[in-house]
């Protein structure tokens, strides 16, 4: 589904004019997809907050070092109100953190959008792991929200991912559970450019994939 024109990096144009014209078509497509579902869990929306089209709601928060739009801070500020009021869970991923991971951890000289999207898709896949594999906690999106959101407006999550591997890489080093946990809470593995050691945690959810026991995790 596509429109004929862009929003020109203008939040109001994307929210009230260009976007408003496509809402009915989008809802119709969503309705048809929902009718094919046996057990609808919810919706994952992946947008940028920097441009005009994507800044209505989304999960990619702009960063100061890799901004290509002058009005990006305004678009993000106007979008946050919609995210606070109208979403149940928001995963914050910013471009600065993605580029830092590509440069420092993955040793990529010139990361492409494919490399950045690989990190985003791996994170999104990890978030929904409990829907596709058996587990003891957070068996669906609703339970994840119940366990992770202490207050209704505090639903902005900062995801971390470990181990980080380059796109197409088949080389995996065996890691212990303590090593994985340490990497997850390392600033270099965070999808938002901030140091998790500064501040306080209200809730934390850790999702492990593979063969391991709860005794190892504890």
Provide the structure class: mainly alpha
CATH class: Alpha Beta
User: How many strand units?
Assistant: 4
Q: Can you give the helix content as a percent range?
A: 40-55%
How far apart the termini lie comes to 46 Å
- CATH H-level superfamily: Tubulin/FtsZ, GTPase domain
Describe the structure.
Pfam families: Tubulin, Tubulin_C. Residues 1-135 form the Tubulin/FtsZ GTPase domain. This is Tubulin beta chain. With 218 residues, the protein is mainly alpha-helical. The protein is 41% helix and 4% strand. The termini are far apart. The strands form two sheets. Strands 1-3 form a two-stranded parallel ribbon. α3 packs across α4. The chain has a single domain (11-217), classed as Rossmann fold. The protein has helices at residues 11-35, 72-86, 95-105, 113-127, 129-132, 141-148, 177-184, 214-217, and strands at residues 60-61, 90-91, 93-94, 156-157. Mean pLDDT is 79; it is low at 56-63.
